[in-house]
Amino acid sequence: MEIKAEAENLLKLFERVVPVISWGEFGGGGQIYTLPVVVEMMLLQRLSEHGTQQEAVHALLGGRLDRLLPNSKRVQGGRISANTGGYARACGRITPETVEQVCDQTLAALSGQIEAEAKWGRPVLLLDGSSVRLEHTADILKAFPAGRNQHGLGHWGIMKWVCLHDVRTGIAQRPAWGPMYGPEAVSEQNLAKKVLSRAPAGSVIIGDGGFGIFAFAQEVIGSGHQALFRLSKARALSLGGKSLPAQGEFLVCWKPSAQERKKYPELADAEIKGRLIVCSAKGFRDSLYLFTTLEQEADEIVALYGERWNLELDLRTLKGTLRLEHLHGKSQAAVEKELLIAVVAYGLVRAFMATAARRAGVDPRILSFTQAYGLINAMSPKLCSPDPVLRQQTYDRLLDYISKAKLPQRKKKRSYPREVWGRGKSFPSKHHFGPLPKTKSK
């Protein structure tokens, strides 16, 4: 599916999907910081190297958003302030609901890049959850309480979130989030039910053992999707029999347990017909137990479940490259807007990568997100040029560079799955240092 370059342009996409609404309609009254300007500045801030408000204001002063600026006296006279105060206040005036609407519109446009997998005849989406640290403020801790361990109460607020990513392009749907701790803590399964409604019709939903429970599997099937979940050994034995071989597959009829019927009375008579696949895989201490409603061969389904590791890489990219490890907003609204804008920025980069890969005839997953991210950030001034010829030339050059930014080919294939990411080097403790060198006195 070929899409015109103008529609693919990083900032032109926002011009198409974000309505040109002035702050007057939101009770603001700003002359420069209209909704499209603020949203794009938030996007540029997330895509910039350091992610500061000053970088976003510099992009505005540098002319990247001239096409969106209103025809006011300050704009005509070149009297836009270089201070961040006006931009910060504008970010505060925009509501999370407005950013959510922008996120949905943009991701809906980007979803045009998601195509049905040829082998499966439908989109394949990866499901998983993660957490993010938040600032220590009264408003944050009220909405997202800190955790507690053997040492006592933690310092940072903690947000739990669940997302759906396309297996091939990595393009995400809008996530769902909630508190990880406290009296209002939400489970990953309940958050996952919210994101299911955003999945393309008839998708294959792949989840790990945390989602391999009857109540959630029934939610997936009831939403018109196909399921592929890993099961715990205890649940697999309950479903397939007291003893299961190390290899094989079985037709099963999954029914809720007595405990699940008590917790979910509406599911008392529900059942799901599918297959239980048991196999031994490298990297697992025990056999792998998979439940699926797909009809393909067992080895193909096991290989498909192996693609779930791509989402672990995506989450690492969001936390590392897009700085979602720790959100710095001081209020609940601020961190929710940060999260949404980060997902939009991530989706835009992935859309460029998908387009570049399609032009070059390669798999988008072999391209480097970090390099694509850097190229888009570096070339965005020319992508915003008023000269249409320069915009088109920059766009084509950008896609060419992204298509060549491939990940290294490892000589030794990694075992699946890697359970824990390696930690970076820490600063050595003082006892690692030798004595300080003696200096000669003059």
Description:
The chain has helices spanning 5-8, 12-17, 35-47, 53-61, 73-76, 85-93, 96-110, 138-143, 188-196, 214-222, 233-240, 258-263, 298-306, 309-320, 332-360, 369-383, 388-404; strands spanning 124-134, 148-149, 152-153, 157-166, 176-179, 204-207, 226-230, 248-254, 272-279, 288-292. It is of the alpha+beta class and 442 residues long. The protein has a domain at 209-306. The protein has an eight-stranded mixed beta sheet with strand order 5-4-1-6-7-10-9-8, sandwiched between helices. It is globular. This is IS4 family transposase.
Write the layout of secondary structure elements.
Blueprint: H1 5-8, H2 12-17, H3 35-47, H4 53-61, H5 73-76, H6 85-93, H7 96-110, E1 124-134, H8 138-143, E2 148-149, E3 152-153, E4 157-166, E5 176-179, H9 188-196, E6 204-207, H10 214-222, E7 226-230, H11 233-240, E8 248-254, H12 258-263, E9 272-279, E10 288-292, H13 298-306, H14 309-320, H15 332-360, H16 369-383, H17 388-404
Parallel strand pairs: 1-6, 6-7
Antiparallel strand pairs: 1-4, 2-3, 4-5, 7-10, 8-9, 9-10
Q: Could you describe the largest sheet, including whether it forms a barrel?
A: 8 strands, mixed
User: Strand content of the residues, in percent?
Assistant: 5-15%
Mean pLDDT: 83
Q: How are strands sequenced across the largest beta sheet?
A: 5-4-1-6-7-10-9-8
Distance between the termini: 77 Å
Pick out the low-confidence regions: 1-11, 14-29, 427-434
Gyration radius, in Å: 25 Å
**Can you write the helix and strand succession as a string?**
HHHHHHHEHEEEEHEHEHEHEEHHHHH
Helix content: 40-55%
- The count of strands amounts to 10
Shape verdict: globular
Number of helical runs?
17
Structural class: alpha+beta
